[in-house]
Amino acid sequence: MIPCNQELALQDKSDLKLVRNICILAHVDHGKTTLADHLIASYGGGVLHPKQAGKLRFMDYLDEEQRRAITMKSSSIGLHYGEHSINLIDSPGHMDFCSEVSTAARLSDGALVLVDAVEGVHIQTHAVLRQAWIEKLTPCLVLNKVDRLICELRLSPMEAYTRLLRIIHEVNGIVSAYKSEKYLSDVDSLLSVPSSDGVGEENYELVEDDEEDTFQPQKGNVVFACAFDGWGFGISNFAEFYASKLGASPATLQKALWGPRYFNAKTKMIVGKKGISNAAKARPMFVQFILEPLWQVYQTTLEGHVDRVMLDKVVKSFNLSIPSRELQNKDPKAVLQSVMTRWLPLSDAILSMVVKCIPNPAAAQSYRVSRLLPKRDILENDDNSDVLNEAELVRSSVEACDSSPDAPCVVFVSKMFAVPVKMLPRGEIQNNFSDDGDSGECFLAFARIFSGVIFAGQRLFVLSALYDPLKVELKHKHIQEAQLQSLYLMMGQGLTPVVSAKAGNIVAIRGLGQHILKSATLSSTINCWPFSSMVFQVAPTLKVAIEPSDPADMGALNKGLRLLNRADPFVEVTVSARGEHVLAAAGEVHLERCVKDLKERFAKVSLEVSPPLVSYKETIEGEMANPLENLKLFSGSEYVEKRTPNGRCVIRVHVMKLPTPLSKLLDESSELLRDILGGKSKQALKNLETSRGSIVEDENPTEALTRRMMNAVESDFFSGITDMGRDWVEKSSMLWKQLFKRIWALGPGQVGPNILFTPSAEKIIEGSVLIKGNPIISDKLGFLDLTENDNPSTESSSIGDETLLREAESLESSVLSGFQLATSAGPLCDEPMWGLAFFIEAHVFPVETQSNEESSSTHKPEQYGIFTGQVMNAVKEACRAAVLQRKPRLVEALYFCELNTPTEYLGSMYAVLSRRRARVIKEEMQEGSSLFTVHAYVPVSESFGFADELRKWTSGASSALLVFSHWETLSEDPFFVPKTEEEIEEFGDGSSVLQNTARKLIDAVRRRKGLPVEEKVVQHATKQRTLARKV
Ligand SMILES: Nc1nc2c(ncn2[C@@H]2O[C@H](COP(=O)(O)OP(=O)(O)OP(=O)(O)O)[C@@H](O)[C@H]2O)c(=O)[nH]1
Ligand SMILES: [Mg+2]
Predict the structure, then answer these.
(1) How far is the CA of 29 from the centre of ligand 1 (A)?
(2) How many angstroms does the Cα of residue 73 sit away from the middle of ligand 2?
């Protein structure tokens, strides 16, 4: 162990070159933690005995991780490889913990991306490659579990080679697509990758590596490994060995030992396929010189006993020195492992690649800075020049990874995690800081120093992601000062106190528990921009309500939830409108762990957990309807009319369906919209966008959004309807352009996927004044062309008197509130509306004149409550009624699901899928194995317990991963009752018909929310009656 001393601070500057910060990323179960074990056993300073490597899973130190045998959090460990010090972060592969991948990637400069050689690329492989790309990490590839190709699939070396080639080809394809910004989400990338782009299986061996390819074995950034048996190699390991034997230079062999290169034994020349006489039987050099000897070693022990003659041959030919005691071992597996670990030690292969291919912190930060602290073009003036100059200085010290003591300190905390106080190193425990309270938990920050030197006891500023050094007035809101109490080097679970640490290192910091909830930037100066936010693959979508079994424990639960919220980077704790404590997690496994943590660590009381609260949306039918017809509707007569109780306001509402691409776009852009509508400056917006890592640089995000909105409606013209002709398209697009000038509000919550358009001014009821509204949103989005000012406001002022006009104007906000209320709770089951456009015409009439004599308007309104409230309510009711009238439909959330099942369990798997209303989109045999990969959409409402049920029915042989995909309208009419003869014949006369799915889901939500549900109660076995249950 590294002793507690000042070591880190005293390292001289050149030492930075000897530091590497890396993380291990992969799909679940591809062997990350097993690999980490070997690295730790070899270079972890003796914390793990080599005999235990691969079995202990040192980095999975939580009980729950050991029990389930999956990693759930990222944690770091310091290794010493020669003179290099390497900070290694192991990360989880399970989708539920993908946020931990983001936090690990942020702190690293390079990533070891593992791929199981049998299973190949999976959904999380896509996700981690994307994270690495977003965070500008240098990736290296490790093809793990090569032993499975030999022992399980029994492939020949040649077959194995083709398979390895194909995986590398596929991974390269994914990375290059991310580079060219082809993919927006992981599901996109998964769905769009064809199994191969035209390259037939047998042709893979002929594919020359593309210069552009990210991963190339001959370049040294690919290692072939078996973490379980502790071996691995890169091409260079063999290039050096064969150099003298084949009489070629190591550099030549480095190029020749991969790809379509053959060795002509007669001429002792390295040739291409054409240059070889018996081309059909020829094996590439990689197969002949690397895989074949490897296969031999495995073959000697494959039959349950050791073929010692053969083994001796291999041992001799590679000059291995293995103690005979080990060779004599009775257990063939033990013999195999001692030969392989001596011949091709895994940790050396991996770490030599790391040291060679992954940049040191200084080199890495010089280009990562554009992602971490994007440049901001702010015009300098007298007021801000000091601030900007200093902020620029900070940025350049991050860029240079300046580790001198007088450089500004900049630290990024990527997550907070809790450790029981008793786990802290001795001597630290007594120091019980107020921070930790009496919970017995201590909060530590997982952090990397990007510039300067930090030391225990130092005071630094904590900047939230919203902090802006140019906005002095916001300072108190987004900035705090905090003292770092202790610093630790992390050795997995172990913490080694250090006095100070300098730029380029990863540490745990104690003392920030009160100041940071999830992540933050620390700085020694307030003139510093906060680091750009991390990107998470999914949002916490699985929600449950939690309450204590004993109501008296409410206080403990509250405290526990607060602690959990701080200890878990991803969980979301909220209180619902109905006062329930709602916990949102990324998935079932995550949820289960959170509940366990709450019960056993943070709240320590027994809890009741509700079934998942599934969210729905409400919309109307109209997917395939002719959009032009739809557009005409709003001018037609199909509307719902409501009158306020006092009769002074008549409200007419039209509703139509927005094109689905537009609704999706609005939904996805809610953050950006919030920023635009909240009045952020163009520059601030641009920075935000680039820091999100999408969008083309140099494009104004508002313009980009409006362009995409236009594209969205246009793309809808072409979907489904092809015979409408040019005229029609032009007309529709003109209509939309006009409409986009009339956007009054978005809802619910000001930025939702529903639009309120201003009413058309022509249709005014005699004697009334129309509440005209104001296209505020169009204005902010830049749809209003100021030059063509068709200002309609002046013409209509002839009708009605001044006071009435003013009253109408003052009622605008009531209409808006009514719209917001309606869109946040639709008529089916009070769930938010989705993808609807409303046109609300509210006509205000003057105060009734016949009662004008002496009882004037003074006491009139009170009779029915305040007028504004009446209007708001009438608008809300009218909107909801309009939706009910236009064939309402339920919209449900769908997961994308990836399943792996052995052939013999396919039947059971499909049974489970169909019980869950799943829709299969693709099924594919993984060639060479008996595994099927199936992709399907599963409704979120059906997903609870899905993985467990699958495991049960397939004896644990199938696995499934779920990730949120999209919203989809259920085409069923929830109010369907068979009416025509044919329908009655098919579905029965309504008395015996089963409720359809949409209706069932709606009723379940209504019951949960305590809304009235119409239920059929079986009164007599033969006769049913409908009873309204008013709850
Ligand atoms: N045959 C074989 N099995 C391996 C190899 N490496 C790991 N395994 C096994 O694969 C399983 C998963 O290994 P882990 O190291 O826990 O996988 P992981 O990637 O850390 O998994 P998560 O952290 O849960 O994502 C374990 O049963 C390992 O023993 C290998 O090279 N060959
Ligand atoms: Mg693991």
Answers:
(1) 5
(2) 9
